[in-house]
Design goal:
Helix content of chain B: over 70%
Strand content of chain B: under 5%
Structural class of chain B: mainly alpha
Number of strands of chain B: 2
CATH superfamily of one domain in chain A: Succinate dehydrogenase/fumarate reductase flavoprotein, catalytic domain
Order of helices and strands of chain B: HHHEEH
CATH architecture of the largest domain in chain B: Up-down Bundle
Helix content of chain A: 25-40%
Distance between the termini of chain A: 62 Å
CATH topology of the largest domain in chain B: 3 helical TM bundles of succinate and fumarate reductases
CATH architecture of one domain in chain A: Alpha-Beta Complex
Largest interface: A-C, 61 and 61 residues
Largest sheet of chain A: 7 strands, mixed
Shape of chain A: globular
Strand content of chain A: 15-25%
Strand order of the largest sheet of chain B: 1-2
Oligomer: heterotrimer
Radius of gyration of chain A: 23 Å
Chains: A alpha/beta, B mainly alpha, C alpha+beta
CATH topology of one domain in chain A: Flavocytochrome C3, Chain A, domain 1
Distance between the termini of chain B: 74 Å
Largest sheet of chain B: 2 strands, antiparallel
Chain lengths: 584, 129, 249
Amino acid sequence: MSDGGFAATHDVLLVGGGGAGLRAAIAIAETDPRLDVAVVSKVYPMRSHTVSAEGGAAGVIAEGDSLDEHAYDTVSGSDWLGDQDAIEAFVEEAPRELLQLEHWGCPWSRQPDGHVAVRAFGGMKRMRTWFAADKTGFHMLHALFQTSLKYDRLTRYDEGFVTRLLVDDGRVHGVVAVELTTGKIHSIGAKAVILCTGGCGKVFPFTTNANINTGDGMALAYRAGAPLKDMEFVQYHPTGLPFTGILITEAARAEGGWLLNGDGYRYLQDYDLGTPSPTPVLRSMELGPRDRLSQAFVHEVEKGRTSHSPYGPIVHLDLRHLGEKLIEAKLPFVRELCLKYERIDPVHELIPVRPVVHYMMGGVHTDLHGATPVAGLYAAGETACVSINGANRLGSNSLPECLVFGARAGRAAATYATGARPAPSSVHAQAADEVRRLERELLGHRAGTERVSRIRDEMQATMEESAGIYRAAPAMKKGVDTLAELQQRMAGVGVADTSRSFNTELVAALELANMLDVAECILRSGLEREESRGAHQRTDFPARDDERFLVHQLVHRGPDGSPRVGTVPVTITRWPPGERVYGR
Amino acid sequence: MTEVRAYRRTLSTWWWVRKPSYFLFVMRELSSIFVAWFVLYLLVLLSAIGRGEEAYRDVLDLAAHPLVVVVNAVAFAFVVLHTVTWFALTPKAMDARVAGRRVPAAAVMASQYVGLAVVSAFVVWLVTL
Amino acid sequence: MGSESSIGLRVSRYRPESDPGPGWQEYDVPLRTEWTVLDALNHVKNELDPTLSFRWSCRMGICGSCGMNVDGEPRLTCGTFLVDHAPGPIRVEPLANFHVVRDLVIDMTDFMEKLPRVKPWIIRDEEQSVDDGEYLQTPEELDAYKQFSMCINCMLCYAACPVYGLDPDFIGPAAIALAERYDLDSRDRGARERLDVLIEHEGVWGCTFVGECTRVCPKHVDPAGAIQRYKLKAAKQSVMAVLLPRGAR
């Protein structure tokens, strides 16, 4: 087990135990049962943010649907920035992955004859979204986690926080991690490492994301020399509850919910999204894509047609006409959340909503097998950018993405690990360096002139001002300057908590350092993209510019620590760039 | 990776008076003594019947002793507690269905009390015959 | 803002390196209608005392991290509002019946070791290939186990269970509810294997139907019901073992 300087070594190490991480772990165990797999996760796996996904998971299974249609919806949803070879692989493998999960016990909602049921979803031309009422992510995660308990060769390091990837000569050889309960720092050797740490919504002040979504994997990869891709594309979900930012699933609109402005008017009809009809029409009105719906909200605010709330302007989601029976059967969690956090019953009352940061389209640059440019380093799920989501992700594509690319990365990493070389001794010196750095931060007893929470608040406010639904160069430049200043102040952050046991202040400081790097990449990448595409809308460059920007942007970390933005082409196979048409 | 050095809390002596449900839990645990007493009492009664009318009368005299009456009353209360618990538990344990529809818990419980009443009435009828 | 009312929090603190045992610390936090106990703890952490440790993540009652004893009751702090506990002070302690790692953080390794023992995964006699499509399951068959599949592993039921408090070997409400969830799943054939585990002394028999687990469950899972159903199964099994010849069981 122990090897030289390592506390333990494994063939493949997963960082993160959510949907993608657990799917990858099982894929490795099934590819080669002799492989030694470990999962290190900063929370118990069933706490991972996959648990919060509500609406569903897209996969072609219904009669009359086709892989091509799912692919086209995804390509047009991505504003043609998604890689079409990746999207074709994705739509082809998604149904099989969802069926596999069915075999592992996921309680998918059913039709009366016992077959899996599907529902409509935003930006999708067919009903193809599998769902487990409106707790799809919760059920998927628990099915995966409980299934993973079957595999004896799977080691889990629960509540372990990875602080660094050990990389030598362009190859990954392991990680350094803090064991949270004891504060002990371990270096863990691994022939291959897969990053599955989810998104980075906490870079923003108002987000559906959980407290744990701090872009850890993105920052780890970035510092280890793997570039981040398309970081400017941040998805605002159109319907979050004010104050808490709790997500009200798109399924609420798919089941027939309406968005009303302050005048009780279905305002989406004014934004080239179709004409209102009493029953939901696919790819139209409330079932348009998320980027367009969130943008429509901003225009309603400008026109003064939204309602006021103590937490700023809001619109209303109207489910009243759906009736109690349907809401209880298909949207029970929506009702539960509204009753608890808004003290209103959507059966009889309007739900106040506003756009809220929800998902990161960008992430660690990978190929179709989850491989990053660093040998042995893989990424999957929201952490990664393959990219199937391009400039805007369609609702219900992210859960199957975790499964398809989690499994792909797992299989690729398993193959890689079988032929990998042992770690050179220089890696142990690197690990020792990291241990020393953390010891200093842990035991430094530094009073500190700066507080984690203060810098975090300022970072979040900066990101809201400069990387919102609409963006412009002056605010983004100002944001870049503020972030640079915050990076400097970060050096003065003190950890007042000197206990080694479950030191959440130390974790918050490490997370903040990660978020600052990610935030910087978002703004730098955003400044470079002088066009409007999908979720990246520039008021100073309002049109899509395929000539200059039908490319992915990669952010590398320069030798001085500052981001360098480059480009790689988008893969187009069968769908040449065209106009995104919804509702007509 | 490493053994957690966690603080082991101990239950306070009076934790069980904090909630009615905890109190009932401890009472049920305690009831075992009285249920055992009931069994013993019945055995004594049965053996007395076997030994003839004299012995039976002696036991009845003993049973009329105030202390024994009190003990029996308490024991009866505990047995009632057990009965109520058991009846409340039954609908949870059985997923009773009639014509494909789940029988409501209240109906299951009510039928048990009806059953108890019928059996009790039968026993009373037997004894007083 | 000056007129804003406040409420006291009495928080249990424990630092293993320096404290012989848990002690109390008082904080004053703004009393806002939309604030939960978790919001108040975060206010303490961000503004008053960064050294306070507690677990939390989704703040929408689905990840199961933030369970604590609030005024003596096991609660998800993200769903427990300050105004419902006014005028305070509100007592916040780590979940009862667990060892304390630090402040409000409990040690849940015991549950993590128990969970795999009940085999909470689909067990089949014959695995059907994914290529042959899904196992059919009618909405009624789904309904049979749905309630038991809602468990978020928040540990509130363990904190409420006096049997677990007295006998830490008791496998406990959530684990048994999950065993029942798979037993009742029409796709599963593993009931016998799970019964072998739960028929043991530390299995279902410790439970005397206190019912607190079901009462505190934030997801209406009804673990108490699951345990009673298991008792019936275990009793039937025991009777069969006595009555039937070996081969017929």
